[in-house]
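Supplementary Methods. Inverse-folding protocol.

Structures were first reduced to a discrete structure-token string of length 265. This string, shown here, constituted the complete conditioning input.
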């Protein structure tokens, strides 16, 4: 995995705003950064943890914000009840911000509801945008005011902190779906999804493929250098579908690149 490309992919990821989340937004575009940014990343992290490390590194590399606390576990009666992602400070205004981060991939299933907010689901249908937002509002943000959390921040005026959400998403819509979306959704659409049978039937000799590891999800397919034909990915995709795991596939067709989830449902 190219570290610099991974960092850039997070920095350029689209963020859902207040009109969708109902929560104040922290945009990574607010960070004043060097143009050619690079820093070390651990190799043993899951995708969500990797995104947290990158965002932490970006804030620390900026000239206008600093990280005061990160990944603060809130413990009650010797049991962890949650974790606060970041407490950051605007260096110029001294404003404290409790910032929660999410880095998610959702597929749009128009059969679920007439309300778009209800239709964004995880690739394997075991989570959703609406559930994530409800958890953030009901559990994550209130953690700041829990008695067990306040004791962690006794060196700052935590009661003066505002709260904001950095919700980075990559959205995928059904293959050849023609319905338009609101601009905040539209700019976050990175590809489409298709079932395995349709995917097989759409293959031709001019197309080549790459199956990114989950740590590579969200990176730019055009930066990938290794491409193979359909026979080289078929066995892996077949195994994933049997296990009810929807793989992400990058496709190169002439000079164009696509990100495609192949779904089992």
């Amino acid at each position: 995995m190219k570290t610099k490309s991974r960092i850039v992919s997070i920095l350029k990821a689209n963020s859902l705003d207040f009109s969708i989340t109902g929560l104040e937004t922290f945009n990574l575009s607010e960070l004043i950064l060097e143009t050619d940014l690079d820093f070390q990343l651990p190799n043993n992290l899951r995708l969500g943890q990797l995104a947290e490390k990158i965002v932490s590194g970006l804030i620390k590399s900026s000239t206008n914000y600093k990280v005061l606390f990160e990944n603060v576990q809130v413990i009650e009666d010797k049991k962890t009840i949650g974790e606060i992602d970041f407490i950051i400070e605007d260096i110029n205004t001294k404003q404290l911000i409790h910032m929660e981060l999410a880095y998610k991939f959702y597929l749009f299933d128009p059969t679920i509801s007439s309300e778009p907010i209800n239709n964004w689901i995880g690739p394997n249908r075991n989570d959703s945008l609406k559930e994530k937002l409800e958890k953030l509002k009901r559990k994550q943000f209130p953690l700041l005011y829990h008695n067990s959390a306040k004791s962690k921040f006794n060196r700052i005026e935590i009661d003066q902190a505002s709260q904001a959400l950095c919700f980075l998403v990559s959205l995928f819509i059904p293959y050849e779906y023609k319905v338009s979306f609101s601009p905040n959704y539209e700019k976050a659409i990175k590809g489409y999804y298709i079932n395995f049978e349709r995917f097989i039937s759409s293959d031709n000799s001019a197309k080549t493929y790459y199956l990114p590891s989950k740590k590579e999800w969200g990176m730019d397919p055009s930066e990938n250098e290794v491409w193979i034909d359909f026979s080289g990915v078929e066995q892996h995709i077949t195994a994933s579908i049997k296990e009810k795991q929807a793989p992400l596939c990058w496709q190169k067709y002439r000079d164009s690149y696509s990100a495609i989830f192949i779904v089992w449902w």
